[in-house]
Design brief:
Keywords: Membrane, Transmembrane, Transmembrane helix. This is Mitochondrial import receptor subunit TOM5 homolog. The chain crosses the membrane at residues 31-48, 54-71. By secondary structure, the chain is an all-alpha fold. The protein has one domain (8-70). Helix content is 85%, strand content 0%. The chain has helices at 8-20, 22-70. Helix 1 packs across helix 2. It is elongated.
Length: 73
């Protein structure tokens, strides 16, 4: 039988040290939030990126048309 390198007691100790220490908990929550924003951005761009690019192009062309009409070219 394969001997485990990490025991359950070591895992429990690691879990308790990360969860019950306020400074480590705050650092872990910052990391989780950053990863969530990163993953959400990837998900959003993969699913709705074409709509964003179309809207961006549409707004840019409207802005350029209004600019050229304003300066009478």
């Amino acid at each position: 039988m394969v001997r485990s390198v990490i025991s359950m007691d070591q895992l429990k100790a690691l879990w308790h040290s990360e969860v019950h220490n306020e400074q480590k908990w705050a650092a872990n929550m910052k990391l989780v939030r950053a990863l969530g924003v990163f993953a959400g951005g990837i998900f959003f761009m993969r699913n709705y990126g074409d709509l964003i690019m179309a809207l961006r192009f549409h707004l840019f062309t409207k802005l350029m048309i209004s600019f050229f009409v304003h300066i009478n070219i």
